[in-house]
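If your schedule permits, I should be very grateful for your opinion on a structural question. The matter concerns a single protein, recorded as an amino acid sequence and a row of backbone structure tokens. Could you please explain, in whatever detail you think fit, how the structure tokens follow from the sequence? I set the record out below, with my sincere thanks for your time.

——
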Amino acid sequence: MLANNNKAIINKLAKNSVKTNKKQYGILFLTIILSTFMLFCVFTIGMTYLESSRLQNTRLNGAEYDIATMNGFTTKQLETLYRNQDIKSVGIESYAGFIKSTEFDNTVEVGLLWCDEVFWNHQMSYARTKLEGRYPENKNELMVTKEMLKICGNENLSVGDSFVLTYENNTGVHTAEFMISGIWDGYGDKSVGFVSKSFYNETGYDLKNDGILCIKLKHNYVLSNTIYSIEKTLNFSDIQIFAPTSYIKNSFKLLIGICGLALIICLSAYLLIYNILYLSVSGKIRYYGLLQSLGMTKKQLLLFITKQMLWIGILGIFTGVLLGILSCLKWVPYIMGVLRISTGNMDLRFHLIIFIISIVVSGISIICGMRKPLQIATNVTPVEATKYKENISLSKSYKRKKGFFFWRMAFEQLKKDKKKTIFVLLSLSISLSVFYCLTTIISSQGERTVLPNYWNADFVVQNQTQTTENINSLQPAIENSFVEEIGKMDGIKDFHLVEGVPIIFPYVPNSFSDMWITNYINRTPHLSSEGVIEDYKANSSDYYGMLIGIDEEQFDYVNQSLSTPIDKQDFLNGEICIVQYEGSEILEEYLKQKVPFNLQGKQYEITIEAVSYETQYSGVDIGASLIVSQNYLESLTSNPTI
């Protein structure tokens, strides 16, 4: 049959076909819009999420690095890192002691750090928002923050001012006057002070035992094998720690997850487009046969169907991208604002590659979805089209059965075209998978999931009047009236009290108290073992501990964190307790034994049943903190401190 030059007629037919089948093509149009919109949003918000994760990781750590090594390093290990082609920079920092008191406040607990130029000028610069002055160069100079000065008792000090402080390091306790060489602000731990290299050299600490390496990789997305190979080349000892940040461990997985989610969206769009076009073409086979009988060639028929989809596809992709841009720019910050989430640091990433990928991938999905229906439409001859019936033949083994007529009828329909049935079921399952993935991602970003904390609490009000050696320093800073006021506040769902009272552990050789004071001496190198033990015997109150009372619900929380849970009723009855410890380990021989302690002039004893390595009940006291039930604590004293 000779082809006719009827392009104008084909265009008119295509337009009329779209107009007369508004419902069918409307669904296709919405499908293309949604797939393009979701692709654009997934890539844009996904890349923004990865960048925000990097920023969050930097701000939480106070510097931009991917791996930290702790407990010292050797010169050989440092040189190995410098030679590694995957590493961009290596910063060094180290603990340099702590401030015990100042001329403004006797209850100070502020750490001192030293860092090298790489860490301060490069890695830490990403977390700083403000810097006045310079990093310390001379021995008695300090780089501080306003928060640290507030803890030290005078936040009004500025660059160039001096103040007297008492500090402790591996060489002992010292008092000296320090000048503020600089003040910085930003993110990270702002309750520490930075000291000069000359000061650090006289602290008794050394990088071989106390140094920390902060490693920044060249790439933001790396395989776990890259991290493992770096660790393997360092040949760490048993005490050294290799700690990759959560971002660098998961960044490549998150990138793969974003691509996987985009693939599922594309597959879902392809299946939906395929199904709709398949049903449309199947229902119009006779119409297409009639067009061929009137002189339309297969090429023209192909052009006729393609033009319908071309208009729908171009308009749908354009609309989807436009909606994606508007959503990312307007609706996401608006929703964040409604939820009272700060949008000041939100940095949406619009890359040209995302526009191209969204358009190309959506176009490929449309083309792939059209391919099979177009083959069906163009391969049927006019004669076959008049007789075309879509898979209505029944199986030869079909037999009439009584009962469940409509169920059997439905089942037979599904068996007619197994391929189409598989595609429909696959479309549904893929769509549900996308929905499940998105809801899982959203729920995983809840504040309780992202940042789990002790007791699932929002606020902790803490008494900070206690000092290390003075047993009488703890004062009732939180009154009962204040507690009652909290209980009456709107929006308070629940609150729990932690009460405590100072206790004295008499020194007993080869017992729990002996083990505890020995561990304290080992953690403080400048102390003399014999001198401290003699002082402990003579002045036990200077080495006091705490008896801490918790309620039943708090006990359930602590008990589930123990390696071996203890008997709840024995705990509530005051027969056993839990010792709070932040060291490496307490040997089993010091557990499950009665430990004597003095409280307000009377001696008691209790069995230590387990060790809690959590930090929520830790204090500044040198002695042990024993966690007991509130009822037991209140039976020993009538006025515990909150």
